[in-house]
Amino acid sequence: MRIFRLIYCSRAKKVLNFDDVKDLAKESMQKNEAKAISGILLYSNNQFFQSIEGSQEEVNELYLKISQDQRHGSIKLLYYEQVNERLFPSWNMGLVQTEPSQDLINRYFEHCKFVPNLLSPSQAENFLYELKEMFF
Ligand SMILES: Cc1cc2nc3c(=O)[nH]c(=O)nc-3n(C[C@H](O)[C@H](O)[C@H](O)COP(=O)(O)O)c2cc1C
User: Fold this and answer.
1) Which atom of ligand 1 is nearest to the CA of 71?
2) Of 60, 80, 81, 135, which residue is least crowded by CB atoms under 10 Å?
3) To test the ligand 1 pocket, which listed residue (28, 45, 59) has its Cβ within 8 A of the most ligand atoms?
4) Which domain does 70 fall in, by range?
5) How far from each other are the two terminal CA atoms of the chain, in whole angstroms?
6) Could you tell me the pTM of the whole model?
7) What is the CATH number of the domain that holds 59?
8) What confidence tens digit (pLDDT) does each residue in 83-119 have?
9) Whose CA is nearest to atom 17 of ligand 1?
């Protein structure tokens, strides 16, 4: 099966607490399992940064659903590529459980705040690799 990876970011419509985000990740995890979707979700500075990987059809279909979800807005597609292998083969939707370190943020964002819509496609990909190193 050809694997596609899609990374997007968005802004939550209301400020969420960690339990809200955990519930969202849990709901996503259950749905993704049936569709062989893997990936991770990060919520920080009221922004979502999510990677989804799977067949092109499932990835496209899910992104369409997610982009219509009223819980967030200002959705921006950051990266969309066919890839050789999954980065998160054992996570149907892994949740980044703590804030990324300030050091990581400082290296990617000039103003030292997590503003993912400023990332280029290759920066988004590299940022994802770093999250994997740190949290998974
Ligand atoms: C930030 C965010 C991330 C989401 N991630 C996923 C996901 O990985 N998988 C999923 O099935 N739904 C995800 N959802 C929920 C979808 O937008 C949508 O509610 C859900 O897919 C509807 O599923 P249904 O058509 O089976 O009812 C996410 C929603 C938000 C706001």
Assistant:
1) 31
2) 81
3) 28
4) 3-135
5) 24
6) 0.97
7) 3.30.70.100
8) 999 999 999 999 999 999 999 999 999 999 999 999 9
9) 66
User: Of the candidates 2, 23, 20, which has an alpha carbon nearest to the alpha carbon of residue 93?
Assistant: 23
What is the best residue among 27, 70, 96 to mutate for testing ligand 1's pocket, by most ligand atoms within 8 Å of CB?
Answer: 27
How much distance in Å is there from the Cα of 111 to the middle of ligand 1?
Answer: 31
Residue 117 in tokens: 């819509």
Q: In what order do the strands lie in the sheet with 38-44?
A: 72-83, 3-12, 47-54, 38-44, 94-95
CB within 8 Å of 63: residues ≥ 6 apart? 6, 8, 52, 77
Contact residues for 51 (Cβ-Cβ < 8 A; gap 6+): 5, 6, 7, 39, 40, 87, 88, 128
Looking at residue 94, its pLDDT comes to: 97
Q: Indicate the SS3 state at residue 77.
A: strand
pLDDT grade, residue 21 (50/70/90)?
Answer: very high
pLDDT of 85 reads 97
Q: Of all protein residues, whose CA lies closest to atom 12 belonging to ligand 1?
A: 28
Q: Who lines ligand 1 at CB under 6 A?
A: 24, 28, 31-32, 48, 50, 52, 62, 65-66, 69, 71-72, 93
